[in-house]
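Researcher: Structure prediction, please.
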Amino acid sequence: MDSSAVRGLARTARDFCARHVAPMVVAEGKDGDLERLGALIDEAEAVGLMATPDPDSHGHEYGVWGTACLEGGATASLVMLDEVARVCAGVAYCLHAAGLGALELTGSELRTRRVAVALIEDGWRLPDADIDRLAPDATPNRARMASVAPRGTRAFVHAVPGWEGCVVYGAGQGGWQRAFVGREDGGLEVAPAERTMGLAAVETVELTFAGAAALPEPRLTPRSPRSYLTRHLLGVAAIALGNARGAVAAAREYAGQRFQGGGQIESHAAVHALIGDAVSRVEAGAAFLHRAAERDVDSAAALPTAAAAKLRLTVDCCQAVTDSLQAFGGYGYMEDYGLEKRLRDAMSLKSMTPAPDVLRRMVAGADGGGGR
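Model: Predicted structure follows.
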């Protein structure tokens, strides 16, 4: 995608944030007025900022993780996530999760608007098809895909408000398989997970699959979760970057307005050091993410790079937020200034699965390439 198109999408994200996200965040409450979140997500879908599986929707191609990313690369979606996260990392993650879910349904006839995605990283398996129940002319591959029934419990699944189903990955006969399970399908139990301190806008659930049958038609083609995981990690890194950019901007504005000791605190050496360190971390992270975005996301080599981006940016950007908060002095911990929210969000992004040790193994190549 050419740079002018990317800039246009970035402007769309900024305008959306000014009109809808900022008013929600600055409203009274620790994390803003979350009662507005459902309407905000609907508006993001309406203006095309959030991708959906419907080819007639505005965001299907050019929203966050719209189908244009399959040919045009990750840059556009990452830039939009960065822009939204400068105002609210939680809202940015909602768009990220919804877009990845929509992309999973591309190529199928399913038109479920909002889906969650669950990776089977703890040993679940999708059982083989019951071939005896299939038509005599069913091919072996058709047999494998005609009936898959995930079983087990998956905690800390992140979903956008209003999600209607789940795409679940599992290792089955012949390799990786994917199944779609509707939220109202029999055998799927949904329990709200304990709310985390950060990313309050994100719905976190625990899913228990007790043989919930996936729809036999239209079915999802088997594939490795490598591309999904690569985009997930890059998106988290972009959100961490945008959150840190917002923190640095707030610190600079405050330092230019606050007087102490006969002058603005922006002239104090200690404040220079804090903001300077924060800016250097943000700029280095932006360069790293730009390099990672230029890789072919669907290649095996992209996953270790994405893992490195998530590992490095979430740590460095969390420190940038901490440094920015320190520039406020004790005021930085007050809800009024929004820095404590940014710090909670940064900590949540840093601890988000996969765990740092898993990411380090991906980067080091100890796991054989992260999904091969």
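Model: The chain has three domains: 3-104, 115-210, 226-364.
Researcher: Thanks, that helps.
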